[in-house]
Every structure is written in C-alpha cells, then in structure tokens.
Amino acid sequence: MSGELPLNINIKEPRWDQSTFVGRANHFFTVTDPRNILLTNEQLENARRIVHNYRQGIVPPGLTENELWRAKYIYDSAFHPDTGEKMILIGRMSAQVPMNMTITGCMMTFYRTTPAVLFWQWINQSFNAVVNYTNRSGDAPLTVNELGTAYVSATTGAVATALGLNALTKHVSPLIGRFVPFAAVAAANCINIPLMRQRELKVGIPVTDENGNRLGESANAAKQAITQVVISRILMAAPGMAIPPFIMNTLEKKAFLKRFPWMSAPIQVGLVGFCLVFATPLCCALFPQKSSMSVTSLEAELQAKIRETSPELRRVYFNKGL
After folding, report:
1. I need a labelling partner for 212 at 20 to 30 A (CA). Which of 47, 162, 171, 178 fits?
2. Among residues 193, 213, 88, 207, which one has the least CA distance to residue 139?
3. What CA–CA distance (Å, rounded) separates 233 from 55?
4. DSSP string for 54-83
5. Is Transmembrane among the key words of this record (predicted)?
6. What is the pLDDT of residues 221-257, one digit of tens each?
7. Strands 290-294 and 315-319: what pairing?
8. Which of 35-44, 131-140, 171-180, 232-241 has the highest mean pLDDT?
C-alpha cells in the first residue's frame, strides 16, 4: 500500500460512523485526547500539510491510511473546522481535561469564602469564554467590541449566579454546600455560551446540503446548535462535580486528611480529572458534530431561497460547535 494510498478516503468526515453514539464517542476520544496539546507547531503544520495535500490529490510516498487518519485528527484537534485558523491552545478540546480538572478541582476545594468563590468562578468563566469563542460555529468574526461585551456580560452573570447560590447555602449541610460550584457552573453555562456566541444568534450560522454546498445562514440553526452545546457542557461537568463531593466528604473525616489537609486539593483535582477523561468525549458525542434540521424549521426567507434552488431538499446541515 506504500505510496499507493487511494484518493477516495473521505477525510472531511470522521473515521467512525457519526450516526451512532459509539462512533461519535470514538471520534471525540481521539479529538479530546489531552496528549494532543503536547504536539509541537512543526507536528501540527506537518499534519495540516498532509491533510491539505491529500484533499488536492497529492499523496506523499509511503503514507499509510493510519498515518493519514492520524494527521487528520491532529489537524482537527488544532484547527477550526470552518475558518481553518489554528485555535488558541487552551481553547482546544484537547485542553479541556487538564484545564477543567485544575479549575474545577480548585473551585470545589476553595468554595467556603466569598473571595475564593469570586476568584475561581472568574477564572472558570474566563476559561469558558475562551473555549466558547474558540469552538464557535461559523466563519463570521466577532469584533473586539462584541467580544469584550460578551466576555464581561457572560463572566459577570456567571459570577453573580455563583455568589447568589453560595449565599443561599450558608445554613445547609456541608455536603450540600459542596454542590454549589456545580449548580453555579450549570447556570453559568446557560449564560456564558449564548453570550459568547451571540453573533451566531443575530446573523446565523452557515447551513449546507449533505454535500457541503453552502445554502445560506440561519439563526434557527444557531439556536439548536447552542442549545445542544449547553446541554453537553452541563452534563460534561456533572460527573466531575457530583461524584467527588461524596468521596471528599468521607475522606475529610478520616485521619489521613486531618493529618495532611494540604492533600485535599490534589486529591480533588485528581478525582475530577479521572471523571473528565471519560465525561468530556462521551458528552461531546451526545449530538452529532455535523448537526441537521428540517428545512421547514428554517427562517421563511431561507426556506423560500432553498425551495427555488433545491426544491427536493428536506434537511440542512451545520457545524454545531463544541
């Protein structure tokens, strides 16, 4: 097969069947692999070159199918699917596990005082804002003013939610208090994601036919995409924020943590990380990355345009973002 790799391998699509949950899970276990953030710029550019050359019918001598798919997934992990731009390192999905395990672990360790809640929720929402912007759908750029407004409003709303919930739980059991960070993160995702992707809700995201031919922009498609992402993100956070509190509540009554209280944060971070290694790809896989909706669910003008150009078309497709 060396040097004779066929040119009909569809690397525009994932390697696994995206109509099944298992296929999507395999895809996202590869895309969110934390080892991808250790790749050098040279390795990323080499993967990009292989992918671009293959799409143009150029196959380097000795390239195997497995090497082609590896290059495709390295490319997908670092470059935006709509714009082709290299994504900010901490905004890539491969950075989700190491970044979130550290931030979430600290949020759940230092949740008792208002300054600590304020600081870690601000750090978390700032990180979320970077991720939400980096993994937005579509290719329309946000202006600096739009980006600044979205960041300030999203972060302020999320932090205020966390402080409000923290105040409500002052007189409840310590175990319930441990769940405040999760409730705050869930509520904040509902605020942060739509605000950081508000341009999509205003002007729409690109919709295509099944062959990738662009048909126009749809705000209705953006609503569906953002809703799916919010659900995925909340469920993604759930295991790492719901399971460790029970374990930590038990461990803190034991002699070990009473003797070494400084071990609380590393243990919490480790527990969250273990949960996130599985929760991140599995929750990304809940909905297809190339999402779809019925033509009848689109805006009236876009429906009319599609009926003129492609009267037989029943469904349109779009990148939902992550």
Report:
1. 47
2. 207
3. 33
4. HHTT---TT--HHHHHHHHHHHHHHB-TTT
5. yes
6. 999 999 999 899 888 888 877 787 778 777 777 777 7
7. antiparallel
8. 35-44
Q: Which two tokens stand for residue 273?
A: 């990380």
End-to-end Cα separation, the chain, in angstroms: 36
Residue 68 CA, chain-centre distance (Å), reads: 24
Instruction: Name the phi and psi angles at 269, rounded to 5.
Output: -60, -45
The one-letter amino acid code at 207 reads: V
Which long-range CB contacts under 8 A does 12-19 form with residues at least 24 apart?
Answer: 12/55, 12/212, 13/290, 14/289, 15/69, 15/72, 15/73, 18/288, 18/289, 18/290, 19/288
> What one-letter code names the amino acid at 183?
A
* Location of structure tokens 């876009």: 302
What tens digit of pLDDT does each residue of 84-108 get?
A: 788 888 888 888 888 888 887 787 7
